């Protein structure tokens, strides 16, 4: 590699700060130039085929319309070829069960965007309970995290003139009671009202017709808190209002608002607390000894709520983790909880129901689920029903939506068609041995007839206690598997596949464990003859983009190509950019010398060195990403360009942190990544 005259960043000097000016003229000129270069190289016939295939899947009318019940109606948000930005719509149970529901369109987002002259992206709606006459609709410009809330009349299908409106900001607004005449609002109220992480720190109660400036402050957090919010539990007979304080990403405080009085719920700040009917549920992230017994991290405890507030500490243990099993999710219905467990990264369900003699725990059997299929569970109506939506999905198994009643009877409501031919493809699970001897699981999906090393795509995340699980992703399958590639999903430390211990074993100064795990999987694939370093591509986004940056700078010899999407890369400045300060519990504080000492070891922007033979890399990001600053990808690409590395860069103008605001943009971004990979590792 040649070494042109170029200044590398140091701890105290960054020669590329100008690329952090999101909409600066020079920065956008640089972006447009790289976009033009990238599309000239990547817009091949194969790219156009992959893009068309992906868009056809994303726009297909055969997709399952996921619904949420509100009163007598089922609500859905839908995008297709004719509605690029989407429709918010509803239907009846009878119509939905027919398989060809008739939809009542409430908001046509394309028409609204055209009328307002704003590239609106849907961010959800909060429907008023129990009348269901009004909704607070959340929209963002171009897919950013910052949103606008507007009150909508479901009878007239129009926004309410002089109704509740929240100006563009990170934050939210929620109904304060069933009257529809008051809301809780937490947003940017002006100087000093946001945390250092860029989120609200003040909650106000706002009455209809009252100037926002006169709204009553309910709670005010500290600037050093991460996020302050409010929500209302509307369970009949158990109506309560709560204030939530995210102190850091992994520590919280929960208060119940009773009249004007705040009651603190004294659980460990690292635990997740949930009040369900007359029970308090506590999911532990750390060991806890509230009395004579120590409960381990990852356990789920239950105690009568009022008894707990009065000092009672008699807990029922609903789940205790093991070496292989962890708690993934808890779903509450009218009379029971459904626990979603992971056992060596495979799902099973357990029903927990309070009884006179304690809690009754029973396995929930869902028929027709494959060995490596993933189960996701939602309550149909947690106030009035024990019914569940249960979705099953696997790498090769099209998603099936089941309606499971409280008595266990199940009805198939919808099933995806097979979007690709999986005949002859195989799914297997393997374990690689990391540097410290830890067994790291990974899934491998193999195309038909594979006899030797093949182009392989390795994906991972490894952060924020997020578990990566098998899922039906036909766009990937058609772009990669059907063309002869192998797909691999690594379940590295830092994620949530084995609960809090798996996550905490790669936090902060132990971050290197996640990268060692991922490198171990890459080596295992080569050792098993699945692929070769020249044929091994890897892909990840956000925290997974940080993972990719560390593969690029720490293990360049293991990979033939790297796709690094909406990434964190400059860990010296990450906490000063957009929402970065909220992640210091995950990575550490780079402004503290002792912590920067270990953060620097996984800051890809500072690990780049002259004279290293780096594999080809594609960086992608979005100008409208207001969560992970686009400057990370811009600066890293410019830095590596300056050293003569093989760098491809593309920045989508819209899209927010997801990278795309429409199906067409999503298809484009996916096609760019797959075409890059095929050119670099598939044609060798």
Automatic annotation (TrEMBL):
InterPro entries: AB_hydrolase_fold (IPR029058), Pept_S9A_N (IPR023302), Peptidase_S9_cat (IPR001375), Peptidase_S9A (IPR002470), Prolyl_oligopep/macrocyclase (IPR051167). GO terms for cellular component: cytosol. Keywords: Hydrolase, Protease, Serine protease. GO terms for molecular function: oligopeptidase activity; serine-type endopeptidase activity. GO terms for biological process: proteolysis. Coiled coil: none annotated. PANTHER family: PROLYL ENDOPEPTIDASE. This is S9 family peptidase. It comes from Tessaracoccus flavus.
């Amino acid at each position: 590699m040649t070494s042109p005259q170029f200044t590398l960043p140091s701890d105290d000097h960054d020669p590329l700060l100008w690329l952090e000016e999101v909409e600066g003229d020079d920065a956008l000129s640089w972006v447009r130039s790289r976009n033009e270069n990238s599309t000239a190289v990547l817009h091949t016939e194969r790219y156009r085929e992959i893009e068309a295939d992906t868009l056809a899947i994303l726009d297909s009318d055969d997709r399952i319309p996921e619904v949420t019940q509100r009163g007598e109606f089922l609500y859905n948000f839908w995008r297709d070829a004719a509605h690029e930005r989407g429709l918010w719509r509803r239907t009846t149970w009878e119509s939905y069960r027919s398989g060809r529901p008739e939809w009542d369109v409430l908001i046509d987002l394309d028409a609204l965007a055209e009328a307002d002259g704003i590239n609106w992206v849907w961010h959800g709606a909060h429907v008023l309970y129990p009348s269901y006459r009004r909704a607070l609709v959340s929209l963002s410009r171009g897919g950013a995290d910052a949103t606008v809330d507007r009150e909508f009349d479901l009878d007239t299908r129009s926004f309410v003139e002089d109704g509740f409106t929240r100006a563009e900001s990170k934050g939210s607004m929620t109904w304060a009671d069933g009257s529809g005449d008051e809301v809780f609002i937490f947003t940017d109220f002006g100087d000093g009202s946001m945390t250092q992480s860029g989120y609200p720190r003040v909650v106000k109660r706002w009455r209809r017709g009252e100037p926002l400036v006169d709204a009553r402050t309910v709670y005010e957090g500290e600037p050093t808190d991460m996020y302050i919010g409010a929500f209302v539990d509307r369970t009949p007979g158990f109506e309560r209002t709560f204030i939530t304080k995210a102190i850091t990403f992994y520590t919280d405080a929960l208060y119940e608002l009773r009249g004007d009085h705040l009651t603190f719920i004294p659980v460990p700040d690292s635990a997740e607390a949930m009040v369900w009917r007359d029970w308090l549920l506590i999911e532990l992230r750390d060991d806890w000894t509230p009395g004579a017994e120590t409960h381990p991290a990852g356990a789920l405890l239950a105690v009568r709520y009022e008894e707990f507030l009065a000092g009672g500490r008699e807990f029922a243990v609903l789940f205790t983790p093991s070496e292989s099993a962890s708690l993934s999710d808890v779903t509450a219905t009218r009379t029971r909880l459904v626990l979603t467990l992971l056992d060596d990264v495979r799902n099973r369900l357990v029903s927990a129901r309070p009884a006179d003699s304690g809690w009754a725990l029973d396995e929930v059997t869902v028929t027709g689920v494959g060995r490596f299929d993933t189960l996701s569970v939602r309550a149909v109506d947690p106030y009035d029903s024990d019914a569940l939506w249960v979705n099953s999905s696997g790498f090769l198994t099209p998603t099936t939506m089941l309606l499971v009643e409280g008595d266990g009877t199940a009805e198939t409501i919808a099933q995806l068609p097979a979007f690709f031919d999986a005949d002859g493809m195989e799914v297997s699970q393997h374990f690689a041995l990391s540097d410290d001897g830890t067994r790291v699981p990974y899934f491998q999906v193999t195309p038909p007839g594979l006899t030797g090393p093949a182009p392989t795509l390795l994906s991972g995340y490894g952060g924020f206690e997020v578990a990566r699980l098998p899922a039906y992703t036909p766009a990937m399958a058609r772009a990669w598997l059907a063309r002869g590639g192998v797909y691999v999903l690594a379940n590295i430390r830092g994620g949530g596949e084995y609960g809090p211990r798996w996550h905490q074993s790669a936090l902060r100064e132990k971050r290197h464990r996640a990268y060692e795990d991922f490198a171990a999987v890459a080596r295992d694939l080569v050792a098993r003859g699945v692929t070769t370093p020249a044929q091994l591509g890897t892909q990840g986004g956000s925290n997974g983009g940080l993972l990719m940056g560390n593969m690029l700078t720490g293990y360049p010899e293991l990979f033939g190509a790297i796709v690094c999407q909406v990434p964190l890369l400059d860990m010296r400045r990450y906490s000063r950019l957009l929402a970065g300060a909220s992640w210091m519990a995950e990575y550490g504080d780079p402004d503290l010398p002792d912590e920067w000492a270990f953060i620097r070891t996984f800051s890809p922007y500072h690990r780049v060195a002259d004279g290293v033979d780096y594999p080809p890399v594609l960086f992608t990001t979005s100008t409208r990403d207001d969560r992970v600053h686009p400057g990370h990808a811009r600066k890293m690409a410019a830095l590596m360009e300056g050293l003569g590395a093989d760098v491809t860069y593309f920045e989508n103008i819209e899209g927010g942190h997801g990278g795309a605001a429409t199906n067409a943009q999503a298809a484009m971004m996916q096609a760019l990544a797959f075409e890059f990979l095929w050119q670099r590792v598939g044609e060798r």
